[in-house]
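If your schedule permits, I should be very grateful for your opinion on a structural question. I would ask you to consider whether the tokens describe a fold that such a sequence might reasonably adopt. Thank you for your consideration; the sequence and its tokens are set out here.
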Amino acid sequence: MAVPLCAAPRAGELCAPVRFLLRGDSLMELTARPVDVRIDVLPAGAEHADARTRKIGTSARHGRHYDVVGTYLGVVADEN
């Protein structure tokens, strides 16, 4: 199952879609440019503290339901 995510960028940044392929227990990040995205697994229905956080999937483990959320942290700094 593929889940697209396009979080609102900071001022001066372009918005580029981030796509996650969810397969069982693994997450794979595919992106058009290097960005930092934090992935959290939270109890289903939990409040998201950051406005840049988007629900990208759900998971069920041992009878409990969880939301998988991604938070856009910004473009990866080019240190070269």
Q: What stands out?
A: The two ends are 35 Å apart (CA to CA). The chain has a mean pLDDT of 71. Residues 2-75 form one domain. The chain has one domain: 2-75.
